[in-house]
Design goal:
Chain lengths: 110, 111
C-alpha cells in the first residue's frame, strides 16, 4: 500500500475560506516536507518540518512524527493558492530519498 | 529566487529518438536527484548523485542514464524514448538539512 496518504484528494474553496490538508504515513519516518506545485508543474518547497509547528505567512504546518501525521493549514485562502499540495516523507534509511503522496488539488474560487 | 535550473522546459519527440535534459544548481549542494512525475502527480526518484557518485539508482529502464560533469550539474539522457516516458522530469538539489530544492521541470511528450 501507499506509504504516504494525503487527504482530501481535491478541495474547492471560496476565496477567504480556510483549508486543512492532511498527510498520514504508514511507516516510521525521519522527517517530512510540504511542497506546492504550481499549475505549470514547478515545485516550491513550503516546509521542512521534522516535528512541531511552523508558520509562514498564511500557512501553518504541524507534524507529529510519533503519530506519523502532518497537516497543512491555509488561512484566508486566495485565488493564487490554487494548485497541488504534496507532502513527502524521508524514510529512516537515511539516504535522503523522499517518498511522495499523490497530492491535494486545491481550487480557490473568486 | 530560482537556484535550480532545468532545460528545456518542454520537449516533444518521437518514439525511438534520444533526448537529453540538463540540470544545474547554484546552491553549492553535494547531492542532486532526478524525479519522474507521472500522470497521477506522484513523484518517483530515478537517480541520486552525491558529488558525482551515483548513490541510488532506482529500477529505471537501462535507456535512462544520468550524466554529471561536476557536483553542480546533473543531466539525464534517454536513449530510444518510449511512449511511457512521457512525463514531467524534475531535478532537485539537496542541502545538509535534507531540504530539497526543485527545478521548474522538463515536460516530455513522446509521440
Amino acid at each position: 500500500g501507499q506509504q504516504v496518504q494525503q487527504s482530501p484528494a481535491s478541495l474547492v474553496l471560496q476565496e477567504g475560506e480556510n483549508a486543512e490538508l492532511q498527510c498520514n504515513f504508514s511507516t516510521s519516518l525521519n522527517s517530512m516536507q510540504w511542497f506546492y506545485q504550481r499549475p505549470e508543474g514547478s515545485l516550491v518547497s513550503l516546509f521542512y518540518n521534522p516535528s512541531g509547528t511552523k508558520q509562514s505567512g498564511r500557512l501553518t504546518s504541524t507534524t507529529v512524527i510519533k503519530e506519523r501525521r502532518s497537516s497543512l493549514h491555509i488561512s484566508s485562502s486566495q485565488i493564487t493558492d490554487s494548485g497541488t499540495y504534496l507532502c513527502a516523507m524521508e524514510p529512516p534509511s537515511g539516504s535522503w530519498q523522499l517518498i511522495f503522496g499523490s497530492g491535494t488539488q486545491l481550487t480557490v474560487m473568486p | 529566487e530560482t537556484a535550480v535550473f532545468q532545460t528545456p522546459n518542454y520537449h516533444v519527440t518521437q518514439v525511438g529518438n534520444e533526448v537529453s535534459f540538463n540540470c544545474k544548481q547554484t546552491l553549492g549542494h553535494d547531492t542532486m536527484y532526478w524525479y519522474k512525475q507521472d500522470s497521477k502527480k506522484l513523484l518517483k526518484i530515478m537517480f541520486s548523485y552525491n558529488n558525482k557518485q551515483l548513490i541510488v539508482n532506482e529500477t529505471v529502464p537501462r535507456r535512462f542514464s544520468p550524466q554529471s560533469s561536476d557536483k553542480a550539474h546533473l543531466n539525464l539522457r534517454i536513449k530510444s524514448v518510449e511512449p511511457e516516458d512521457s512525463a514531467v522530469y524534475l531535478c532537485a538539489s539537496v542541502g545538509q538539512g535534507y531540504e530539497q530544492y526543485f527545478g521548474p521541470g522538463t515536460r516530455l511528450t513522446v509521440l
